[in-house]
Amino acid sequence: MKNALVLGGTGFVGRQVCEALQRAGWRITVPTRRARNAQAIQHLPRLTVLEADVHNAAALNALVAGHDVVINLVAILHGNANSFEHNHVRLPSLIAQACRTQGVRRLIHVSALGAEAKAPSFYQRSKARGEAVLQAAADAGDLDLTVIRPSVIFGAGDKFLNTFAALQSVLPFVPLAGAGTRFQPVWVGDVAQAVVRCASDAHTIGQTIDAVGPDVLTLADLVRLAGMASGHPRPVFGVPEWVGQLQAGAMALMPGEPLMSSDNLRSMRVDNVRTGRGPDLHSLDITPAGVTAIVPTYISARQGAA
User: Fold this and answer.
1) Residue of 180, 291, 171 whose CA lies nearest to 232
2) pLDDT score at 300
3) 54-85 burial by CB neighbour count: b if 16+ within 10 A, else e?
């Protein structure tokens, strides 16, 4: 039985990855700073939760030892340049060092569609630098690397479409910056299956795989879909980016994680759709699910439960 170390295993995507790994027969280790964060996955057979700080080099070295594959899902959507650098660049560097020290070659790294050195947002640029760090280690012969680049990820428990659905239950209309930006949303279950198949298939070593769904929709389209699925459709009005920046600044002053940050808005200056001809989910024998088919099932269920 093979052993997988899943970094970021307690998050939205991580929980799905752990369940998919369990179904595939893997033994799984999930580190977290607080064990209570792992309540949603602690029931899974063959899964061990360890309290550890993966940003600590010594702790990460100890965690990596004895595993057949490391899966890195750690990411943040909101923050400043330093926090993006810490999570998206420095951590991959520590992972590469730990893998080299412990002789663990196989690494599955989940990055982001649109990760480019000259992209408009800190998030996208830091994701590109993280990929570059790992690719340098792979080029040096230290890693057997596969990179997965998902577009925006949707599914039960997401903080994207569920939030827009909830907003439309209380707002008379939705003012939306970046309304015309196009996305190619991918279902979280398909991303999780892609991770498992890459971990199990040596033929994916050296590949960068675009994880996208079959539907290309604007942000306004997605917000309308969330509203219709919730039973509270509202008019959606596009607003200029400067208005959105004012909204983001106000949201940043409120407690909790903001719905939209200034950096998120900058990322929407470019479309988030597949443009290349390299591998995608079909290359893994995965037929991706459409957002228009799945979103109504989980948002309507959530609204009914509420």
Assistant:
1) 171
2) 58
3) beeeebbeebbeebebbbbbbbebbbeeeebb
* 57-64 vs 91-102: helix crossing angle, rounded to 10: 50
What mean pLDDT is reported for the chain? 92
- Find all residues with CB under 8 Å of 286, minimum gap 6, and list them: 190, 193, 194, 197
Measuring CA to CA, which residue among 196, 179, 114 is closest to residue 150? 114
Establish how many alpha carbons lie within 13 A of residue 65's alpha carbon, considering only the half-sphere containing its beta carbon: 7
**pLDDT tens digits for range 98-128:** 999 999 999 999 999 999 999 999 999 999 9
Q: How many CB atoms are located within 10 Å of the residue 15 CB?
A: 22
Question: How far is Cα 165 from Cα 222, in angstroms, rounded to an integer?
Answer: 10
What ranges in the chain are assigned the alpha helix state H? 12-23, 57-64, 81-85, 91-102, 122-139, 161-168, 188-200, 219-230, 241-252, 262-267, 291-305
| Topology (CATH) of 3-154+186-212+274-288 | Rossmann fold (3.40.50)
What whole-number distance in Å separates Cα of residue 94 and Cα of residue 57? Answer: 6
CB atoms within 10 A of CB 159: 11
Domain boundaries, the chain: 3-154+186-212+274-288
Burial label, 141 (beta-carbon count in 10 A; 0-12, 13-18, 19+): exposed
What are the DSSP calls for 241-298, one per residue? HHHHHHHHHHHHTSSS--SS-HHHHHHTTS-BS--S-S-BGGGGT--PPPHHHHHHHH
Residue 304: per-residue pLDDT:
46
What is the pLDDT, as a whole number, of residue 254? 60
